[in-house]
Amino acid sequence: MPVKNIALLGSTGSIGVNTLDVVAANPKQFAVVALSAGRNVTLLIEQAKKFQPEAVAIWDKTQYTTLKSALTGLKIEIFCGDEGVKQIASWSTAKQTVSAIVGAAGLKPTIAAIRAGKEIALANKECLVMAGELFMDEVAKAGVTLIPVDSEHSAIFQALFNGQTKTIQPTLSPDYLKEVSHITLTASGGPFVGWTRDRLQHVSQAQALAHPNWSMGRKISIDSATMMNKGLEVIEAFYLFGVPADQIQVVIHPESIIHSMVSFYDGSVVAQLGVPDMRTPIAVALSWPNRVATSVATLDLVKIGKLNFLPAPKEEDFPCLHLAFKALQTGKSAPATLNAANEVAVAAFLDNKISFLDIPRINEWTMEKTNQLKPSSIADILNIDREARAIASAWVSQHTKKSNLS
Question: Which tens digit of pLDDT belongs to each residue from 370-404?
Fold first, then answer.
């Protein structure tokens, strides 16, 4: 297996840090040739010195001078801003681009990587939530390999294609769907498994950030707590695998050992299991169709003893999950609208401007107040995103003082 050159977008986030851990553990298989980060210039400098890439970029232009000064004397090209991140995404010597930027900011650089013909290891679910059909059209047009990094979608990918050289081919009717009854996305339930709406009214920021199984960034931790993360993953699965929405199920699995399952018409169910550690799906995405070693602990089912499952929560308790299914049913720009509203709402909650239950209120309000139109280009998607953010931000401005903050 020759060394694979990798460009990593979002290197200082949780997925980025874990990706570099996998790379460091497998120096004969992988080399990082380009890195980008958002604002964490201190960690980016540390990563650049350790991995010696050909290029780095910091999205925050105010940090460019600091980055350039710290890397003086090293043979590393330095960029900044949106264009700089796009240059990293499409870096000439990279074979694969890992898209690990959180949120809508990951869309444009990931599209740039696709158009440059790079293999895509996709950890940014917003690319598919915002622009699912258009995004997959770009993948098909470029003929690039697309492998999901989300643990749930990696599990489905492995269940469908394990032991094969196949990758996701965006077509209207993939052959493998003829055998699939449905797919099941497992959800840990976050820190509030079994909680009702009454109890959720007084959730604090610290409680919402305290995920019981996974170590994640702040935004995705809140999404897990509201179950919006699972809703976004439903939309992501719809576009990735071409499975109709009514054939996508969600179950609560508090232990996070079974990462998702595929049920076939013959009664077989194929599941992917492992300890909750993102280095496993990252390693799968980097090395497919081969496997490489990681330092992830071996799963010991005897020690675990039992696995538990619960039905998806009621709509009145966790409306974000159900809003995602509604967005899929509505189609057009509804998923992009929902994603934009949610990013605004989560940011407002983390800024202590709104309460936990205001997050689904903002999401639903924005979807109701936005005209859902069918986007025909990435530019349309970005316009839809801006409009939805403006509507959601207006809600925050009008209700901040009235919110029941904890």
Answer: 988 999 999 999 999 999 999 999 999 998 755 44
Amino acid identity, position 44: L
Q: Tell me if 9 is assigned to some domain.
A: yes
**Are residues 146 and 34 part of one domain?**
yes
Q: How far apart are CA 229 and CA 195, in angstroms?
A: 17
Cβ neighbours of residue 397 under 8 Å, at least 6 residues apart? none
DSSP string, 217-274: -HHHHHHHHHTHHHHHHHHHHHHHH---GGGEEEEE-TT--EEEEEEETTS-EEEEE-
Cα 6-12-16 angle, rounded to 5 deg: 45
What pLDDT digit, counting tens, does each position of 56-94 carry? 999 999 999 999 999 999 999 999 999 999 999 999 999
| Final residue belonging to a domain, choices 108, 129, 161 | 161
The three-state secondary structure class of 65 is helix
Q: Is 79 exposed, middle or buried (0-12, 13-18, 19+ CB in 10 A)?
A: buried
Q: With a threshold of 0.85, does the pTM exceed it?
A: yes
List the domain range (segments joined by +) for residue 17.
4-161
pLDDT at residue 405 in the model = 47
Question: Among the three residues 161, 196, 213, which one is the final residue of a domain in this structure?
Answer: 161
**In the chain, how many domains are there?**
2
**To which H or E segment does residue 169 belong?**
none
Render 315-334 in DSSP notation, one character per residue.
TTT-HHHHHHHHHHHH-TTH
Alpha-carbon distance of 41 to 29, in angstroms, equals 27
Residues 77, 194, single domain; the answer is no
Dihedral (C-alpha) 371, 127, 231, 178: value to the nearest 10 degrees? Answer: 100
Chain segment 113-166, per-residue pLDDT in tens: 999 999 999 999 889 999 999 999 999 999 999 999 999 999 999 998 876 666
Angle between helices 358-369 and 228-241 in degrees, nearest 10:
50
CA 188, CA 214: separation in Å to the nearest integer? 9
- Measure the CA–CA gap between 345 and 332, rounded to whole angstroms: 22
- Convert the pLDDT of each residue in 187-205 to its tens digit: 988 888 888 999 999 888 9
Whether the pLDDT of residue 172 is over 80: the answer is: no
Task: Compute CA 127 distance to the chain's CA centroid, rounded to the nearest angstrom.
Answer: 8
